[in-house]
Amino acid sequence: MLLTISTTHQPATDLGYLLHKNPASLQSFSLNFGQAHVFYTETSIERCTAALLLDINTVDLVRSKDSSISMDQYVNDRPYVASSFLSVALADVFGAALNGRCKQRPELVTSAIPLEAKITVIPSRKGEEWLRKLFEPLGYQVETLQHGLDAEHPEWGDSPYFTLTLRATCRLSELLTHLYVLIPVLDNAKHYWIGNDEVEKLLKRGSGWLQGHPERRQIAYNYLRHKHNLTRDALERLLTEDVQQEEDTASATEAEEADVTTSGSIIDVEPAVESVPAVEEKRTSLHEQRLDAALEVLKQSGARRVLDLGCGEGRLLKKLLQEKNFEHILGLDVSYHALELAQKRLHMERMAPRQRARITLLHGALTYRDKRLAGYDAAAVIEVIEHLDPARLSAFERVLFEFAHPATVIITTPNAEYNVKYETLDAGTFRHQDHRFEWTRTQFQDWAAQVAERSGYQVRFAPIGTEDTEVGAPSQMGVFSLRAANAEDEI
Ligand code: SAH
Questions:
Q1: From the CB of 257, is ligand 1 less than 6 Å away?
Q2: What is the rounded CA–CA span in Å between residue 414 and residue 139?
Q3: In this structure, which residue's CA is closest to atom 14 in ligand 1?
Q4: Nearest to 173 by CA among 221, 123, 207
Q5: Which tens digits make up the pLDDT trace of 419-434?
Q6: Centroid of ligand 1 to alpha carbon of 268 (angstroms)
Q7: Fewest CB atoms within 10 Å of the CB: 124, 126, 305, 357?
Q8: Strand, coil or helix: 119
Q9: Which protein residue's CA is at the shortest distance from atom 13 of ligand 1?
Q10: Is the same domain home to 298 and 155?
Q11: 397-421, pLDDT tens digit by residue?
């Protein structure tokens, strides 16, 4: 089996540094299932190609008693087609490159360079379409050549074997990682025992791209050799560990933001004081509950195109992206720094192109009309209005309800009555220093009812967080729905 990797990044021979393999010599490696050979088929300044040739010792494999390999016959495609053997060889022989390490050319490791990978024979029993479904969302230009079953008997039709060429401008480590995971997914016949280790490997190598891949379920299922329980475990962890990572960055950014907010910036994710409330749900933070409440309303509204206004560092955007029903999501914030954090949180630079096309981040203010906000079905404005100057609320109202005019609007804001429950909050002060006001339930409901009346919406209210009998819930939500055009005439 043969894999070649080429670049036209100049000087192209730098590929030798990236792969840690000298272009001038042939190198061979003994693996426990055969020999791997690395050599270069071209080494000009303009283009350089490295080849990994894997020579599998199938007879040894069949004879070895203690291996878990079961090969029912001596004559099969194993020596010739790309399979999990090639992934193992790739990790063994190009380990440093796969892990993105290169002392001599560190800048190249992090650079996207023009790359081409060619696998001479790879099986795809679901045809060419499946090859495209796997690689195109990752940004590859895919070229395939399907081979006939027998050149002398064209009437026998096509074989499931393809020559596959992938082209992209990306980091070499990304290309190798994608190949490492997806070759066995295509071959669908792993040569070694599949256990929990494989889940770990999949999570490690799939980090940053698998979660957003439209075929992630099938990829995990094939990679884990159709083991339902392992697949379920992997998919769950793929989501939760991403959240874990996200929480790690969030705490780092919150520390960062604490500095920024004290210097007067308007960036705010969660009022600092809310982390030490006297009475508060332990399991799901109040902010999570707000986001989940908004998400639920958005899902039920049937919206396809959604605005997140004052999106901050993108916590809601992240949840929205995970719902396939939302075709397009636009996040807007006045803070450039918050948008940068959102970009990081969403891993936008590594997003699969189709996923990337679903999201737009806009730097802008909610108090100025912006034509780009028109044409959306719903808008979420989560913990934002209290950051606006009361004098600017009427501008905000027009921008959102008159000009953007989505059918559904969700606004959440703190319930000021609940502040007495926060032991660390002095009477008369706000939960966050950038808050310009905090409203009681009556104040919020009065304002919202007037806005709805003026703009042709109806509004309902819901508490967020555990309700206290006297002071209500810590946060409050208003859900505005556009009244049908002729509803008023009918009344
Ligand atoms: N909705 C996010 C962030 C809430 S914090 C979340 O729930 O996680 C409030 C956000 O509103 C901040 O990111 C702040 O930069 C933004 N903001 C404040 N005034 C704004 C304005 N006039 N236009 C747009 N965004 C604004």
A1: no
A2: 42
A3: 267
A4: 207
A5: 888 776 777 788 877 8
A6: 7
A7: 357
A8: strand
A9: 312
A10: no
A11: 999 999 999 999 999 999 999 988 8
